[in-house]
Amino acid sequence: MNQTPAPHRVRPATPGDDAAVQGIFERAIRGAAWLPADADADTDFKRNSSCEVVTVCVTADGQVAGFMAVYEPGAFVHHLYVDKAFRQQGVGQALIGSLNAWPDKPWRLKCVLDNTVARAFYAKLGWRETETAMGSQGPYVVLRR
Length: 145
Fold this sequence. Notes:
Blueprint (H helix, E strand, L loop, with lengths): L8 E4 L5 H13 L14 H4 L4 E6 L5 E8 L4 E7 L8 H7 L10 E5 L3 H9 L3 E8 L2 E7 L1
Parallel strand pairs: 4-5
Antiparallel strand pairs: 1-2, 2-3, 3-4, 5-7, 6-7
């Protein structure tokens, strides 16, 4: 008999999550084939998420499977990364879904244009691409929900 895995739980990050979040962030940035070769790939998560609210998605045994960093005053999702071992398991969807518990806002985020996997993920969840621009990591699209 097939068992359905327990749903992932999203909660506020704690200092005990720092190493796991940093590891996920660093591996994601270093493994991002969609980043231009000359992009400034700063892998220090704390520096990149200053003044942001960080939530984590954890497994039933408490392992951090992914995280999201939100700049709340701007209703802006700055980072959303899922550990490679937990991709395609609903982690990203759980993190984005947790925005529903926040005050109702028109949320937005930016996604590097060449990151087609992420763009497809957000489109599947109802985010709309509204504009494009150039950034330090190359051309990007702004998505809104």
